[in-house]
């Protein structure tokens, strides 16, 4: 960490001591961690999207990723992914928040409770949230840091993360995500050959054509296959109702983000009552209270570990969702670092949720961890390697520069 970075963080500080915080209540798990942070590194990469991906919010022509590594004084390293999303150049701002503000606060800190570190970072960076109006980027940076600390803790323990978190089963259902609604049958067969048995199609744009394509995809499903759609907040309430009616006979496992999180709660209730298909959302919610409010109208909860909460926030949220009778299906649409964290948390909390795996061409994903587990007959099985169980390949990603 540069002296300039330390200077930028001079006005911020972590408040409270970890040992004092420990007396405040029960830990997320029974595992105790005691590490001193020696270094925090950030790795930002960009790549063109060929072919471009069409969504309700436009065409995605470039993708980015921001990975964070945290090294302790024993030389052990943990990895996390900070959501960057669209526009891709937003990764630069999150990189600056990480390197100039968050990282200097962490270096030299003794960590005993990871969830308390995240709370302290939120308190320290609250002026940025307030004055710059940036709860999203701040939450994303802290979420990625939290994930990296949990990977570090599991690596030090010699356990895969899901087992450190109390999970026992290493196998989970998956689905192929980000599929264009008009994908031809031959390309669908390629996804089947890659092991997938469930498929999520893009929606929320060009309804005159797209809804017909979706009905055709539903008719073409083989026995034992499943489909979902994701409108990416592309409809208003009236358009969503029309789409629901048009897709009433389609075998949908869920309808994701038909409208945006800013839409009033009563409108979400109205939409949930309009369709027999469960509604899904969560990647764009930024507080535990908003998630808990959404329990009333959602059937599927989808937080992204790199956007909000990290492991410390999402594990208790997912368990609460399951206790409420909902499904937990983590959102993941970045590199294999984020996907690995999502897989381990899904394995830890259990339930019948599915792991989201982006199937669009993305060298940032494929180069990030070539040893990411394969999908076999619709399911993925985690290894017994410590931590998140993958070898992050920074050299491979650097080849894109």
Structural account:
This protein has helices at residues 3-8, 18-21, 90-106, 114-124, 126-131, 135-157, 161-164, 185-193, 207-220, 237-246, 265-274, 288-294, 310-323, 336-349, 363-368, 394-398, and strands at 35-55, 58-72, 77-82, 110-111, 171-179, 198-202, 226-230, 252-256, 279-281, 300-301, 327-328, 354-358, 375-376, 379-381. It has 401 residues and is α/β, with parallel strands linked by helices. It folds into two domains: 3-158, 2-Layer Sandwich (Enolase-like, domain 1); 163-398, TIM Barrel, CATH 3.20.20.120. The strands form two sheets. Strands 5, 6, 7, 8, 9, 10, 11, 12, 13 and 14 form a ten-stranded mixed beta sheet that branches. Strands 3-2-1-4 form a four-stranded antiparallel beta sheet. Strand 9, helix 12 (288-294) and strand 10 form a beta-alpha-beta unit. The longest helix is centred in the middle third of the chain and has 23 residues, at 135-157. The radius of gyration is 21 Å and the shape is globular. The two termini are 22 Å apart. Residues 17-27 have low confidence and may be disordered.
Task: Sum up the structure in keywords.
2 domains, Enolase-like, domain 1, single chain, 14 strands, 16 helices, alpha/beta, 40% helix
Can you lay out the helices and strands and say which pair or pack?
Layout: H1 3-8, H2 18-21, E1 35-55, E2 58-72, E3 77-82, H3 90-106, E4 110-111, H4 114-124, H5 126-131, H6 135-157, H7 161-164, E5 171-179, H8 185-193, E6 198-202, H9 207-220, E7 226-230, H10 237-246, E8 252-256, H11 265-274, E9 279-281, H12 288-294, E10 300-301, H13 310-323, E11 327-328, H14 336-349, E12 354-358, H15 363-368, E13 375-376, E14 379-381, H16 394-398
Parallel strand pairs: 5-6, 5-12, 6-7, 7-8, 8-9, 9-10, 10-11
Antiparallel strand pairs: 1-2, 1-4, 2-3, 5-14, 13-14
Helix pairs in contact: 3-6, 4-6, 6-13, 10-11, 13-14
Organism: Pigmentiphaga litoralis
InterPro entries: DgoD-like, Enolase-like_C_sf, Enolase-like_N, Enolase_C-like, Mandelate_racemase_C, Mandelate_racemase_N_dom
Keywords: Lyase
């Amino acid at each position: 960490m540069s002296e300039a970075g330390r200077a930028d963080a001079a006005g911020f500080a972590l408040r409270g001591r970890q040992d004092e915080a420990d007396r405040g209540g029960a830990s997320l798990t029974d595992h105790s961690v005691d590490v001193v942070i020696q270094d925090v590194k950030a790795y930002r990469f960009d790549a063109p999207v060929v072919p471009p991906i069409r969504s309700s919010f436009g065409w995605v022509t470039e993708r980015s990723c921001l990975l964070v590594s945290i090294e302790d004084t024993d030389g052990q390293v943990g990895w996390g992914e900070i959501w960057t999303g669209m526009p891709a150049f937003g990764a630069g701002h999150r990189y600056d928040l990480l390197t100039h503000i968050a990282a200097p606060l962490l270096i030299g800190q003794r960590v005993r409770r990871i969830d308390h570190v995240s709370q302290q970072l939120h308190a320290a960076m609250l002026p940025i949230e307030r004055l710059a109006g940036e709860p999203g980027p701040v939450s994303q940076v802290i979420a990625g840091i939290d994930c990296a600390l949990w990977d570090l803790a599991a690596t030090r323990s010699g356990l895969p993360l899901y087992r450190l978190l109390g999970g026992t089963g290493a196998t989970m259902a998956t689905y192929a995500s980000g599929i264009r609604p008009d994908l031809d049958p031959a390309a669908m067969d390629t996804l089947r050959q890659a092991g997938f048995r469930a498929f999520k199609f893009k929606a929320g744009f060009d309804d005159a054509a797209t809804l017909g394509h979706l009905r055709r995809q539903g008719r073409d499903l083989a026995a034992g296959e499943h489909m979902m759609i994701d409108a990416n907040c592309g409809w208003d309430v009236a358009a969503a109702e029309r789409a629901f009616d048009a897709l009433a006979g389609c075998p949908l496992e869920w309808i994701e983000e038909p409208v945006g999180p800013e839409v009033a709660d009563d409108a979400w209730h109205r939409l949930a009552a309009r369709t027999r298909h469960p509604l899904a959302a969560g990647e764009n919610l930024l507080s535990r209270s908003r998630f808990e409010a959404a329990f009333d109208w959602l059937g599927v909860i989808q937080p992204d570990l790199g956007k909000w909460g990290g492991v410390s926030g999402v594990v208790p949220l997912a368990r609460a969702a399951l206790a409420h009778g909902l499904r937990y299906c983590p959102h993941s649409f970045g590199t294999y670092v984020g996907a690995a964290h999502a897989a381990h948390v899904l394995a830890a909390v259990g339930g019948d949720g599915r792991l989201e795996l982006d199937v669009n061409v993305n060298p940032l994903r494929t180069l990030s961890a070539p040893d990411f587990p394969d999908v076999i007959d619709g399911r993925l099985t985690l290894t017994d390697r410590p931590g998140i169980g993958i070898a992050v390949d920074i050299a491979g990603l650097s080849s894109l520069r």
